[in-house]
TrEMBL record:
Residues 17-290 form the Ppx/GppA phosphatase N-terminal domain. It comes from the Bacteria. Keywords: Hydrolase. SUPFAM superfamilies: Actin-like ATPase domain. It comes from Sphaerisporangium rufum. The keyword Iron does not apply. It holds the Pfam family Ppx-GppA. PANTHER family: EXOPOLYPHOSPHATASE (PTHR30005), EXOPOLYPHOSPHATASE 2 (PTHR30005:SF13). GO terms for molecular function: pyrophosphatase activity. This is Hydrolase.
C-alpha cells in the first residue's frame, strides 16, 4: 500500500486527494476543494494575475500541510487549461515547487483527457461500453471515448469560466446566450471530427458543473457526494435545469442548497455546455461521477 497526495489545479478550483493505493484501488484519506479562480481573466489577457496566483498558492500551502500531516509518500501536482494558456506559467511553476518541493505537470489537453478517463472509469462500475467521458472544467472540456483503454480524445476551450467571461459576465440575455451556444456548437463540431461520439453507449459526466446539475436534479437539501455519485440524470431534466439556471438571478442561484458559492456565477455556462452535449449527440442521460482527473492523477503515482 502506498499513500499518495494528488493535486489538481484547474481554471476554477484547486483540489487535493490524499489516498491509499493498493492493487489499483484508491481509498480516500482526505478530499478537499477550494474555488480559487486561477484562470480569472486568462482568456482576455493571456496571463495569470498576481491576485489569482496568490489565492491559489494560499490554498496549496494548506494542502501541502495536510499531505505532510497524513504522511503522503508521493506528491503529484497537475495543472490544466488556465496554466497551459498563460504566458507567465513559470511564475506558477516556481510557486508550486516552493510549496510542494516538486514541479507541477502542466498537462496537454490530450493528457488531461486521459487522466479524466482513468479516474472516471475506475470510479463507476457496470457501465455499457464504449463510454464517453466528458469533463466540463473552467477553461476547457475534455471528451474521451474508450472501453478499457482510451480510443480517442480531444480537449476544447468551452469551460464554464471561459464562456462566462467571454459572453455571460454582463448577464444571460438572449444575445449573450446565443453567442455562448455558437461557441459550444463550434467546439462540438471539432469534437465530432475527432471522436466517434455516436458509438458511445454511456455518457459519464465529471466535475463541478455536472455534479451541481445532478444535485439540483435530485433536489438535495445539501451537497452529498454519496448521493450524487452514480446518479443518472435524464436529458430532458438536464435541459430544464440549464434553462432555469440561465433565467435565475445571481441571488436565486446562490440560494440553491447544493450550490458552492464559487460556482454561482459560472454554473449557467457549465449547465449550458452539458445540455448541448446531451442534445447534440442524442444521449438519453448522463451518469454522474464524483471520481475524475484527481483520481487519475493519484492512480498515476503508482502506475
Amino acid at each position: 500500500m502506498t499513500r499518495v497526495a494528488a493535486v489538481d489545479c484547474g481554471t476554477n478550483s484547486v483540489r487535493l486527494l490524499v489516498a491509499d493505493v493498493h492493487d489499483g484501488t484508491l481509498t480516500d484519506v482526505e478530499r478537499r476543494m477550494e474555488i480559487v479562480r486561477l484562470g480569472e481573466g486568462v482568456d482576455r489577457t493571456g496571463t495569470l494575475s498576481p491576485e489569482a496566483l496568490e489565492r491559489t498558492f494560499a490554498a496549496m500551502r494548506g494542502y501541502a500541510a495536510l499531505a505532510a500531516e497524513h504522511g503522503a509518500e508521493r506528491v503529484r501536482v497537475v495543472a490544466t487549461s488556465a496554466t497551459r494558456d498563460a504566458a507567465n506559467r513559470d511564475d506558477f511553476a516556481a510557486g508550486v515547487r516552493e510549496i510542494f518541493g516538486v514541479p507541477p505537470e502542466v498537462v496537454t489537453g490530450s493528457e488531461e483527457a486521459h487522466l479524466s478517463f482513468l479516474g472516471a472509469t475506475a470510479g463507476v462500475s457496470g457501465l455499457a461500453t464504449p463510454v464517453l467521458v466528458v469533463d466540463i472544467g473552467g477553461g476547457s472540456t475534455e471528451f474521451v471515448l474508450g472501453t478499457r483503454d482510451v480510443e480517442s480524445a480531444i480537449s476544447v476551450d468551452i469551460g464554464c469560466v471561459r464562456l462566462t467571461e467571454r459572453h455571460l459576465a454582463g448577464g444571460t440575455t438572449t444575445q449573450a446566450v446565443a453567442a455562448a451556444i455558437a461557441d459550444i456548437e463550434a467546439a462540438l463540431d471539432r469534437v465530432t471530427a475527432v471522436v466517434p461520439v455516436t458509438r458511445a453507449a454511456t455518457l459519464v459526466g465529471l466535475a463541478g458543473s455536472v455534479t451541481t446539475v445532478a444535485g439540483i436534479a435530485l433536489d438535495l437539501p445539501a451537497y452529498d457526494p454519496a448521493r450524487i455519485h452514480g446518479a443518472r440524470i435524464g436529458a430532458e431534466q438536464v435541459h430544464e435545469i440549464s434553462e432555469r439556471l440561465l433565467a435565475m438571478t445571481h441571488d436565486e442561484r446562490a440560494a440553491i442548497p447544493v450550490m458552492h458559492p464559487g460556482r454561482v456565477d459560472v454554473i449557467g455556462a457549465g449547465a449550458l455546455v452539458l445540455d448541448h452535449i446531451v442534445r447534440r449527440y442524442g444521449l438519453p442521460e448522463v451518469v454522474v461521477s464524483e471520481h475524475d482527473i484527481l483520481d487519475g492523477i493519484a492512480h498515476g503515482l503508482v502506475a
